[in-house]
C-alpha cells in the first residue's frame, strides 16, 4: 500500500536527475550525516554504529542532523545506514572496530553454503524501511529522501576480504580462480539488493543510489564481467518491480568509483556519479546518448580534500567545478547534481562544509537572460 507523505516543496534534485534544466545545481554530500559533525559524534558516544542503523529513531535523528544544521542549503537527505547491512541480512556478522570487520569472512566457495539460501528482506532489513518512513515524515517535504545499497561486486569484496583492503587480493583471486562460483554469489547478492531497493521506495525513498565504491579495482573487462551485468539487473528489475507494485519509478544513480564512465553509463541508470579525477566535459562526450539517445545526469565531483584548503581554495575550486559542468551542458545548468567526488571526511570543519554549499548555490546558478 502506498504511504501518504507530506508534499515535497524542493524537487530540484529530482528534476536534475530526470535531466531537466534547473535554476541552479541541487547539492548534497555523500556521508553528509557523519563524523565531521559534533552532534553525530555526541550520539556515537553512547550508541554503537550498527545500533544506530537498527534504530529507526536514532537513524532518523542522524539523517536529520545536517538538514537542520544546513537548513536551506542541502537539497536532499540520505538515510543513515551502511552498505554492509546486506551481508548482515545474509547471515554474516559485521562489527565496526573502528572500520568494518567480518568475524567469519568467506574463504572458499564452500563457505557460501553456510549462508541461507533465502533471505526475508522485510524481516532482516525492516528497520531500514521503518527509518525511511519515519525520516520521510520528519522531513515534512523539505527535501527529497535518498535510499541506497552497495553494489554486488563491492559487497562481495567485503564479504571475502573481511573488511577494507588495499590490494583486494583475496576477493579478486576469487574472480580468477572461481569465476562461476563468483557469479553465483553475485547473483544471490543482486537478488537481495533488488528486493531491498524496491522496499526502500515503498517505505518512502524518492531517489536510489547504488554504491560500487570498488569498481575501479577491476579492469574494464573484469568490470564488464563481474559488475556491470549485476548493476544492469538492479536497474532493470528495480524499475520493473516498482511498476508491478504500482510504486513511483524513482530516479536511479550509480556511483561506480574509478570505472570507465562509458561503461558505468551503459548500466542504464539516470545519473552516474563522478569522482574528482574525471572532467565532466570529457564524460559528457562519451555518455550523452549512450542509452536511448538521452542525456545522462552527472553527479559530483569536487575533491573532498579541497574542504581542508581554506575559504579561498574552496571558492576557487567550486567556481571551477561549476564552470566545467556548465561547459559540459553547453552553457546550461542542466542534468547536474553537485556533490563531492567521494564522501566527506571526518576532519572537515562543519563551517567549511557550509561555505562549500553556499558557493555551489552562488556559482552553479546562471545569470537570468
Automatic annotation (TrEMBL):
InterPro entries reported for this sequence: UROD/MetE-like_sf, Uroporphyrinogen_deCO2ase_HemE, Uroporphyrinogen_deCOase
PANTHER family: METHYLTETRAHYDROFOLATE:HOMOCYSTEINE METHYLTRANSFERASE RELATED, UROPORPHYRINOGEN DECARBOXYLASE
Enzyme category, top tier: lyase
Main localization (coarse): cytoplasm
Enzyme Commission code: 4.1.1.37
PROSITE patterns for this protein: UROD_1, UROD_2
Subunit structure: Homodimer.
GO molecular function list: uroporphyrinogen decarboxylase activity
Protein's cellular compartments: Cytoplasm
UniProt GO cellular component terms: cytosol
Family: Belongs to the uroporphyrinogen decarboxylase family.
Annotated protein name in UniProt: Uroporphyrinogen decarboxylase
Gene Ontology biological process terms from the UniProt entry: heme biosynthetic process
SUPFAM superfamilies assigned: UROD/MetE-like
Keywords, in A-Z order: Cytoplasm, Decarboxylase, Lyase, Porphyrin biosynthesis
Reaction(s) this enzyme catalyzes, per UniProt: uroporphyrinogen III + 4 H(+) = coproporphyrinogen III + 4 CO2
The keyword Cytoplasm is assigned to this record: yes
Keyword Lyase found: yes
Function: Catalyzes the decarboxylation of four acetate groups of uroporphyrinogen-III to yield coproporphyrinogen-III.
Uroporphyrinogen decarboxylase (URO-D) domain: residues covered: 26-35, 146-162
Gene3D superfamilies from the UniProt entry: 3.20.20.210
Pathway: Porphyrin-containing compound metabolism; protoporphyrin-IX biosynthesis; coproporphyrinogen-III from 5-aminolevulinate: step 4/4
Amino acid at each position: 500500500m502506498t504511504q501518504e507523505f507530506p508534499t515535497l516543496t524542493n524537487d530540484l534534485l529530482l528534476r536534475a536527475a530526470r535531466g531537466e534544466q534547473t535554476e541552479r545545481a541541487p547539492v548534497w554530500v555523500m556521508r553528509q550525516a557523519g563524523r565531521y559533525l559534533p552532534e553525530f559524534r555526541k550520539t556515537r558516544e553512547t550508541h554503537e554504529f550498527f545500533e544506530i542503523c537498527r534504530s529507526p529513531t536514532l537513524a532518523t535523528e542522524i539523517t536529520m542532523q545536517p538538514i537542520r544544521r544546513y537548513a536551506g542549503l542541502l537539497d536532499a537527505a540520505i538515510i543513515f545506514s551502511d552498505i554492509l547491512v546486506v551481508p548482515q541480512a545474509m547471515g554474516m556478522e559485521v562489527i565496526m572496530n573502528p572500520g568494518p570487520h567480518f568475524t567469519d569472512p568467506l574463504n572458499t566457495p564452500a563457505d557460501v553454503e553456510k549462508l541461507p539460501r533465502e533471505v526475508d528482506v522485510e524481516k532482516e532489513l525492516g528497520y531500514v524501511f521503518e527509518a525511511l518512513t519515519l525520516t520521510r515524515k520528519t522531513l515534512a517535504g523539505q527535501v527529497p529522501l535518498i535510499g541506497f545499497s552497495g553494489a554486488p561486486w563491492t559487497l562481495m569484496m567485503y564479504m571475502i576480504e573481511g573488511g577494507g583492503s588495499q590490494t583486494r587480493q583475496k576477493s579478486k583471486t576469487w574472480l580468477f580462480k572461481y569465476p562461476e562460483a563468483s557469479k553465483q554469489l553475485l547473483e544471490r547478492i543482486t537478488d537481495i539488493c533488488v528486493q531491498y531497493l524496491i522496499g526502500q521506495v515503498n517505505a518512502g525513498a524518492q531517489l536510489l543510489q547504488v554504491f560500487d565504491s570498488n569498481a575501479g579495482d577491476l579492469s574494464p573487462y573484469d568490470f564488464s564481467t563481474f559488475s556491470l551485468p549485476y548493476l544492469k539487473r538492479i536497474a532493470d528489475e528495480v524499475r520493473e518491480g516498482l511498476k508491478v507494485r504500482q510504486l513511483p519509478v524513482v530516479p536511479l544513480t550509480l556511483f561506480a568509483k574509478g570505472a570507465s564512465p562509458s561503461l558505468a553509463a551503459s548500466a542504464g541508470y539516470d545519473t552516474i556519479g563522478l569522482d574528482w579525477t574525471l572532467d565532466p566535459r570529457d564524460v559528457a562526450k562519451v555518455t550523452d546518448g549512450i542509452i536511448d539517445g538521452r542525456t545522462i545526469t552527472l553527479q559530483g565531483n569536487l575533491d573532498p580534500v579541497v574542504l581542508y584548503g581554506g575559504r579561498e581554495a574552496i571558492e576557487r575550486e567550486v567556481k571551477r567545478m561549476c564552470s566545467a559542468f556548465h561547459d559540459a551542458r553547453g552553457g546550461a545548468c542542466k542534468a547536474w547534481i553537485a556533490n563531492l567526488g567521494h564522501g566527506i571526511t571526518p576532519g572537515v570543519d562543519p563551517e567549511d562544509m557550509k561555505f562549500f554549499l553556499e558557493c555551489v548555490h552562488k556559482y552553479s546558478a546562471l545569470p537570468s537572460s
